[in-house]
Amino acid sequence: MAANNTITAVPGITAGHWTDANAATGCTVILCGDTATGGVAIRGGSPGTHETDLLNPIRRVDRVHAVLLAGGSAFGLATTAGVLCWLEERGVGFETPHGPVPIVPAAILYDLGVGRADLRPDANAGYAACDAASDAPLPSGSVGAGTGASVAKAFGSGGAVKGGIGSACCTLPNGISVAATVAVNAWGGIYDPHDGSLVAGPRRHDGSMADPIAAILNGEYPPDAAAMTNTTIGVVATDAALDKMQANFVASTAHDGLALAIRPCHTPGDGDTLFCVATGHNPTPSNLTAITAAATHVAGLAVLDAIQSATGLAGIPSVNELNHGIAG
Amino acid sequence: MAANNTITAVPGITAGHWTDANAATGCTVILCGDTATGGVAIRGGSPGTHETDLLNPIRRVDRVHAVLLAGGSAFGLATTAGVLCWLEERGVGFETPHGPVPIVPAAILYDLGVGRADLRPDANAGYAACDAASDAPLPSGSVGAGTGASVAKAFGSGGAVKGGIGSACCTLPNGISVAATVAVNAWGGIYDPHDGSLVAGPRRHDGSMADPIAAILNGEYPPDAAAMTNTTIGVVATDAALDKMQANFVASTAHDGLALAIRPCHTPGDGDTLFCVATGHNPTPSNLTAITAAATHVAGLAVLDAIQSATGLAGIPSVNELNHGIAG
Description:
The structure is a homodimer. Chain A has helices at 79-89, 123-132, 212-218, 244-261, 288-309, 319-323; strands at residues 14-20, 25-31, 37-42, 49-50, 66-70, 106-108, 150-151, 161-162, 164-171, 177-184, 189-191, 198-200, 233-238, 262-263, 273-278. Chain A is an alpha+beta fold. The first copy, chain A, has a 5-stranded mixed β-sheet. The first copy, chain A, has a 5-stranded mixed β-sheet with strand order 3-15-13-10-9. Chain A has a 3-stranded antiparallel β-sheet with strand order 12-11-14. The mean pLDDT of chain A is 95. At the A-B interface, helix 3, helix 4 and helix 5 of A face helix 3, helix 4 and helix 5 of B.
């Protein structure tokens, strides 16, 4: 059996997808038990989020029970109701005098322009994603929240390349695990985070790929094509014991992984949002510098995995298909 | 005469340094007239800043007259008094019933461990930087706020490489200029922002350079060496007409340029802070996506210029010296 290189390799984390390949949308839940702290960092101009304010260290709630990533734009936030129902049935939540209240921060991406616009992930989809959750390696590609994702949209949707959801995991020398799952639906192109080589750029009419940064700087990119809605969303998970401030800090720095792999990133038409959950299953004292560096590392690799694992859907070809002459 | 590829190529911007090479500290002022809007984005764990709250779009003040970058840690914020004095003498400031009040946001970096710790830039230094300001190309290297800067400190100060201050400028196809000046004093190493090749990594005892990300992930980096204080600070300037929200957005996205060129970036021991000033001298309608992409581009190149232009100081060798066998 291959090693688990996904977010479910982190002790205390299970995860599952719900996928509607016909409508080209879906959702992904990351369940983190009842000991996890959480943080969030939102960049880019067009986020869609749920229960993010309580992650601010000045708020009292100090645990998160799940994080939900969904397609469907703002409509997709309805998935959270299903996750709350699933957790309530299992007695998981913030203890109150009248029963547990599950804390489920969430973020959405815009995939209404891919597949069907009228079908979006709903509460049943969120519930089904929880039912599907396990500690098995989380599938990558055109599944879950990445089902309807696309990237490299500088020349409009006709030149896009298929996005998806991907994961990466690493273990620090002190035994702490740091992993990321990212649903990549970026306006920008995708680059190898290590050597900066272009992996997925906007496709010209002749089928060639442009470097979107060069296209912006040399005028090939038409200046009014940025209106299409995008957004990359993800979760960094670790078994380290982090307080809320540290979890927010890790979420913020992890955006550097997006910056390495998505160029341009954090544009006005992206609502890029990353969560961090820390299960605390590993009591080793944390080195926050190492954890933030690892979070950046796995976030960049998760973006790359998402694009390389994606399969074509709803007329949008994947890089694998383009590289093998199957589509494009 | 060579083209001006620095921040002073932006219409409406002048800039100047004050340098104390003996104490290995200094400051840099960017003067932006009386029409500029401003924004700021602060990341990393250890910032030192001045007059940043008024850059929030919910605050009333809608103009900035200068931005100051200084060494000297928190002590270096005293430089701002000299800039206010210089501007007041010239009648520049936010109009009030009792005279103009200059608005001068500022940020500092920690250079007390390089050269002398007891000499820091003061009000006279800030005034002198204003006197030195012009629209000539702004010098790069171990000058101004970059005088005492160092990078690549994963193995402690003994393995550091000289930092500095650098600039880059580009002109978008619609004629709008976007430039950056960055004083680079990072804990992380420096990489070419395009191809990810290592430019300045922490030096081992045998003189070889490590890749700091690899050193963290494989355990070569000792986990308790991140306490040394750092911080990279800079300014993105454009002649576009941006409102305060847009200027803040550009400042935020420009951090992606740091993420490309500094790895790891935005660590707990860095107080990385970027300002954006928009003079509005160019009435062409702004394309915010293009401006943010250009801001990221020039911020990354400015980091590279800073390290490649630096000269050794106070026992810290520059990459040029190391590459030519002069030091190390």
